Write a sequence for this structure.
């Protein structure tokens, strides 16, 4: 008689089986407990997010109040805004124009003087027609030095080639888009 030989399960097979059972039961137990906890405890209502940079000590903040987004401008425009936590040797406020056609950043006269009540104003100039972003930046010591050197070199040569990128240490605080016609 031919007998089929069957193997008895080894100890290792039993161990793997029970390990799987334990893992599955732990998974379902954890899921059930998590569900019960989240259902039994009332969840707080989500807080609305209100960005109030003037209440965060040491963090630079700025707004551009004039011009507003999508304004048509001539070859220059009077720019006004507010700033907080700028100065005291840690950050300097700079205004930069980004020309979409040239794909370049053009630092304006700077750094911008911020009054004791946080107000500032400056005239921004545009070399080309088209779309431009006017951006208020907080520049750390390194970025302030690079922007100042660019400005000094451009004024002495009369050539304003723009920068391919903002210098390291620049923090964008506010921006509006305008169109020069």
């Amino acid at each position: 008689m031919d007998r089929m030989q069957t193997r008895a399960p080894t100890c290792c097979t039993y161990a793997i089986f029970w390990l799987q059972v334990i893992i599955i039961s732990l998974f379902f137990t954890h899921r059930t407990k998590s569900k019960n906890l989240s259902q039994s405890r009332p969840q707080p209502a989500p807080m609305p997010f209100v960005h109030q940079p003037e209440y965060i000590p040491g963090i630079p903040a700025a707004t551009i109040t004039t011009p507003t987004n999508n304004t048509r401008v001539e070859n220059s425009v009077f720019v006004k805004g507010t700033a907080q936590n700028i100065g005291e040797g840690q950050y300097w406020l700079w205004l930069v124009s980004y020309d979409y056609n040239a794909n370049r950043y053009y630092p304006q006269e700077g750094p911008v003087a911020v009054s004791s009540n946080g107000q500032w104003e400056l005239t921004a100039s545009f070399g080309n027609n088209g779309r431009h972003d006017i951006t208020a930046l907080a520049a750390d010591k390194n970025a302030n030095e690079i922007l100042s050197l660019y400005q000094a070199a451009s004024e002495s040569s009369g050539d304003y080639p723009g920068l391919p990128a903002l210098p390291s240490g620049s923090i964008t605080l506010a921006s509006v888009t305008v169109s020069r016609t």
The first strand starts at residue 61 and ends at 66.
